[in-house]
Amino acid sequence: MSCRFLVLAAALVLLAQRGTASGLDPHSVAMHVDEQLSKELFGGADGSAHDIATRADDQTFLRRLSLDLTGHTPTPDEVTVFALDGSPDKRSTAVERLLANTQFGENWARYWRDVILYRRSEDRALLVGPTVVSTLSAAFNGDAHWDKIARRFITATGDVREEGATAIIMAQMGNTEDTTAEMSRIFLGIQIQCAQCHNHPTDRWKREQFHQLAAFFPRIAVRPVKQGEERSFAVISMDRERGKPNQVVKGGGHLEHHMPDLNHPDEEGKLMRPVFFVTGQKLDVGMPDRERREKLAEWMTGKGNHWFAKAFVNRMWSELVGHGFYEPVDDLGPDRKCSAPHTLDYLAEQFATSHYDIKWLFRVITATDAYQRQSRSRYEEGEAPFAASCPQRLRGDQLFNSLIEVLGIDEYAQQPNRDNFRAILAGPRGRMNATFGYDPSGRRDEVAGSIPQALFLMNGPELNRALSGRQSNTSLGKLLAEVSDDQAVVEELYLRCLAREPKETELQTCLDHLHTTRQRAEAFEDIMWSLINSTEFLNRK
Question: What's this model's pTM, rounded to 2 decimal places?
């Protein structure tokens, strides 16, 4: 009995044991989202007048879904099982299977690591990278609720090697103004740092509001610590006697935040009371660090602050559909243009009603027609958004996952110390991220390839060794030794690399190349190399 048949049999058993998700029905919400989008963007029409893309085929959908949820491409067996499944709800079943995979948490933990650390103030902040991935992986794979995660990050203290939630503060090395700006950008999608030195030039936020928000963070600091031979940093609170707001802290600084006087920069400036600019809720000067940050976390994630839900929904919609309601995803605000405001309001409201259940939101978005449409190039100014899915360039981690799976490489074979952050940065995944990584918060149409990326894929020595078809210990070498039918090998390579079967023209081109080259191993090395260097491999479409 073949391995692929066994996988199919197991999948059919799972199909018979399907259950229903609890809480708000994601499919009903998804239908309403599509209806609302149609009203806002397509005039409620059937889409024919707006050239709305048709539904993506099963192979395209499965690769898209697998990369989006787990950061991995589906295996040939998974592609075969999905194609043979005739049930009408097989797509939602695939969603549930992938959400239950531990790779889901790891994929999105790495995404948020990049969101936080890409805009770090200095490279020492990378020390927290492995820890934040571990912390968020466990959270996303468990009872993942975004408000609980956000509160943990806003109130975090401790050794950055042990507490991943210190990542935002560590990324800015405890600087009050920079930490304030990142907390707002990441959790509210509002770039209030533009109001740090003057009133916001394109939004309604005032300079005083930025510094009132900064008044929640003056008592945090990042300090070096050493335990034996291990060197690290810790996020600490610098509280002193309550009621002495101007007491100077050892090492410089104050227990309270002062808004600088631009006309007299050498003077202390105006003492600021902690006020949350969205709702106007405020605290007294002199509150201990933990109390003020806990209260800010409560207000920032509360139902009274609709920007919290909007920011997360907009960001996840952009990652999955390819374009956000607001672009870029971390620049929302009452004076910003939203492509479908009523749809975003509805989806954000339902997300809040679900108690910010992250997996629930993924179930909703992946069930929408907007997500399941064929992909096209990004729409031009004046065209209706979301008429098709937009291609996404793979992040460094996703590309690395795809390569090691296609090439059959053990990621940790040459990196035995998985907990050492320097080894991780210097290892193959770290080098891949350094070469192919990009800011996840940036506009996708601004992400472009580079010469180092092209050189790595075209003639990198590590990649060339792994692509060898003449070595018995490589993935391609093993395949050629086991399968003598050239057409079957071509089909297998397409399934491995692109999660689909080759088109007739592609198959014929490959077979012609085999005939012309007359060196089987060399010809298949060329074919596999061309697939790995293809735009389709480097993007999620």
Answer: 0.91
